[in-house]
Amino acid sequence: MNKCIKYIVLSSLALFSSCGSSGSPVDPVGPDPNPSTEKQVMKSVVYSGTDETFANPERGFYTEIEGNLVDAVSEMRLKDLKANGKTLVQLLYYLNDYTNASLPSEGLTKVDMDFGRVRNAGLKAIVRFAYTNVQTGQDAPMDIILGHLDQLKSVLAKNKDVIACVQAGFIGAWGEWYYSSHNLNNADSYKKLLDKWLEVLPSDRCIQVRTPKYKQDYLGLSAPITESHAYDGTAIARIAHHNDAFMSDETNMGTYQDVKADKAYLGVEGLYLPIGGETCLPSPTTAVSNGSSAVSEMQSLHWSFLNDAYDRKVLDKWESDGVMTTIKNKLGYRIQLIKGDYSTKHIPGSDVTVKLTLQNVGFAAMYNPRKLQMVLVSADGRKSYVATLPEDPRAWKPSKSITFEESIALPVDIAEGIYQLYLYLPDAESTLAGNPLYAVRLANKGIWDSATGYNDLKATINVTSSYHLNKSTSNIKFKEK
Length: 481
Known about the structure:
alpha/beta; Immunoglobulin-like; TIM Barrel; 2 domains; 18 strands; 23% strand; disordered N terminus
């Protein structure tokens, strides 16, 4: 028998044998233990922006409150500020009774309690200390100032969660480094004070100085901060700027030495550091600034906050010029979703893929640490899962479009069902991370949930075991809350 005939016979015998002689049914073929992975399908959502005026943490108009070491800051007043759309308050403490003495322990306790009231109100504070509010008043000698800062160190550390930034203060009238009764308005004194501030203030908070020259002289460097040093905790990354004579005249009453160069310097610094302050009534020979010029200046210098009361004549002029809504909306950051792309096939343990495009349409960027999280909430609201993404929201610079994509692992034991996806930008501090009053609202229609602080991405995540998908290898994972 040749090989061909032998093969046919053997095949026929095998087929006959497989039929059996008892008439029992054939065992069905089982599923492929390694089915091919299904291709993921993405769904796009396009978002509508909004021009609505609303509050967001650490930005916008602020109210100044003068304080001391005896009288408590009114919590009712702070809560009224919050109810009227403020997120910032300036606490300006005058220590005029202690120019030659240590701060009393009960005074330090009172400051600590003031910060607690700020926290209860859902605000953050711009903090300054001074000894006098008149040009001929008395400030303190440098050893007293440094001692006061040593005393304040633990209070500042305990309450850094509600400190937006501090202002260098202490020297001269209003703590603006002028008119010192102890001749402290010099580079050596400024250096000692800034050295101490950098020592006692937590390293992720900034100290604002009154003019660009003060920072440049302290560092011995005329160049602005670069991206490589941003947020690294060094002096160049922590010394910021406040201008309390904004738009008053060409030099802003001495704020600028070389107007063009100093503005160019601040235009870079403001991308990474908080810039803010107040307007000032110009001299009788100088016209009050117009609104369009103010907007242009705040945009180019990247202002984050502005005093809501000083100077009233200047602010009223801007109001009559029709720009106040623009200023209210654009001081600091204003983040707007443009588009989202989301995976549509999910099994327990697989990836949720998210690609987001957003834009910062504000004047400035965020300047303090903040988390970026995705939140999954079950249809019945009983289960929530949170994933923290590696992106730093401070990198979302003004007038820039930002796109990022992440794959996030679902828990292997997540229940099948429908989940809603949210974006959450909570405060980085654990004391505030779960408080929606400190979460960032995005500038889009119909996505904000004030009860949770979540932004609804309008994306439904359907988890089912019916798909053939790979298990996730991502180190970004949803974890149950």
